[in-house]
Design goal:
The chain has 18 helices and 7 strands. By secondary structure, it is mostly helical. Helix 11 links the parallel strand 5 and strand 6.
């Protein structure tokens, strides 16, 4: 059994481990595994156990592991009640309690295992089996680096469950349960992340109206794993007093995520505030994956479509920030339509309600099936919001994405597309009635979708 008596000075530890004093102090500060005592003269003193721990970590590095991964493996073994020093020359020689073995890299066999674990995690989430879901994640982290486990099991699992909801195969309750479990695991990983080692900090905040925070939270964890200090504000951050927050945090970069057309328009407003402060915005999200052209409307830096690549992209941006991408000016016709719709939105919506409730939504005046008031209210709120966002972004055809998503959702739930066309016809009539010839882009789009 190792001796825990602190009798070895720094010179002895360096001799036994081959580490430099700078590396040893960095490991102490970053990972907190070593807690040397002080001699009466103030010099660090280490134990035999400390030396053997360092030798174990160095051996793992020689086998190809990063130091952060080696430390995590040490802690994982200790958490399972095992002594890492008794696990043989390689940390994944001995079997873990869950029947899997740890590995520092993702081998082809591990890729297949991660696929199986992701399927198991999804199944556990859909049956509300929290212990089984947690076990699947623990096994994933035992065979792969944390970044890989997060992306291959958690991120892809959440995306798959979201697709099942969209297809009408699971309930929104199941989707919320899975997302909550995923975010709880990422929260715990962030809490256990080592202290930051880089100069400066980053600020992570989603724009107003963007309620989905999983992507931003996972981004925060990946960046903290790479040594960044990240101030995480989360979802739906208002723009009021954002300048004061920027002043207080002085970030090197502001990070944000937008999943919808509406939150992309809000991101545009956020970018204006951030740039006015002299800081820069870097962003990602689903809307930019589906509509890459939207990136040309945001005065910031697109992080790409891969969360795993974000740390490298952020490091490159902070080291050498390129000139800010130019953004096209808003066409005059869009500005007029945007101002008119904002001013008379309530009149337009009232006219839509009257037309549909009176059965006058179709151009041929055929009596349509009356829409439920709750559905009509929801349609008014979301479509008008997306319409205003498309005008703000200077591209009315961005509505195609929102409507395509809605039509797919209705189809998956067995609802008629006729409901959508009927609604657009009523909206078209309301716009013609109230916007006084200032609705050119709106009517151009509705002409193609109301028939």
């Amino acid at each position: 059994m190792s001796d825990y008596t602190h009798i070895y000075n720094l010179k002895a530890v360096i001799h036994e481990t081959g580490l430099t004093p700078e590396t040893l102090r960095a490991w102490e500060r970053r990972y907190g595994l070593l807690k040397p005592q002080r001699s009466p003269g103030g010099h660090r003193l280490y134990s035999q156990y400390d030396i053997e721990m360092l030798q174990w970590l160095v051996a793992r590095q020689e086998e190809g592991l990063s130091i952060s991964r080696a430390v995590e493996m040490w802690r994982s073994l200790e958490k399972e009640g095992q002594n890492p020093l008794l696990q043989g020359s390689h940390p994944h020689v001995g079997a873990h309690a869950n029947g899997l073995v740890a590995s520092p890299t993702v081998t082809p066999a591990n890729v297949n295992m991660l696929d199986q674990l992701r399927a198991g995690w999804i199944e556990a989430c859909l049956t509300y089996d929290e212990p089984a879901a947690d076990q699947a994640l623990s096994q994933a982290f035992a065979i792969a680096d944390p970044e890989v486990a997060c992306v291959e099991v958690i991120q892809k699992g959440v995306a798959a469950i979201g697709a099942l909801w969209y297809q009408g195969e699971i309930s929104v309750q199941q989707e919320h349960f899975a997302t909550a479990l995923a975010m709880r695991r990422i929260d715990s990983l962030i809490a256990a992340a080592p202290p930051s080692t880089r100069l400066g900090r980053l600020l992570a905040a989603n724009p107003p109206g963007e309620e989905h925070s999983f992507g931003l939270l996972l981004m925060t964890y990946l960046l903290r794993r790479h040594g960044w200090e990240v101030v995480y504000l989360g979802a739906n951050v208002p723009l009021s007093r954002l300048d004061a927050t920027l002043e207080a945090t002085a970030p090197k970069l502001v990070l944000s995520v937008a999943q919808t057309l509406t939150s992309a328009a809000a991101l545009l407003a956020m970018a204006v505030v951030v740039n006015a402060h002299g800081t820069s915005l870097a962003y990602g999200g689903g809307i930019f994956t589906h509509y890459p052209a939207v990136t040309s409307r945001i005065p910031g830096y697109f992080l790409g479509n891969s969360l795993a690549a974000v740390p490298e992209t952020v490091e490159r941006l902070v080291a050498d920030l390129p000139p800010l991408p130019g953004v096209p000016a808003l066409p005059a016709s869009y500005g007029l339509a945007l101002e008119a719709l904002r001013e008379k939105e309530s009149l337009v919506i009232d006219a839509v309600n009257q037309a549909l409730r009176a059965g006058r939504g179709e151009r041929d005046h055929a009596a349509p099936q009356q829409l439920e008031p709750t559905y009509l209210e929801t349609a008014n709120r979301f479509f008008t919001r997306d319409l205003l966002s498309a005008l703000t972004m200077g591209d009315i055809h961005l509505l195609d994405h929102a409507v395509g998503w809605l039509e797919g959702l209705l189809s998956n739930y067995g609802l008629s597309m006729e409901l959508v066309r009927r609604y657009f016809s009523a909206y078209q009539q309301a716009v013609q009635q109230h916007l006084d010839g200032q609705a050119g882009p709106i009517l151009d789009w509705l002409d193609k979708h109301a028939t």
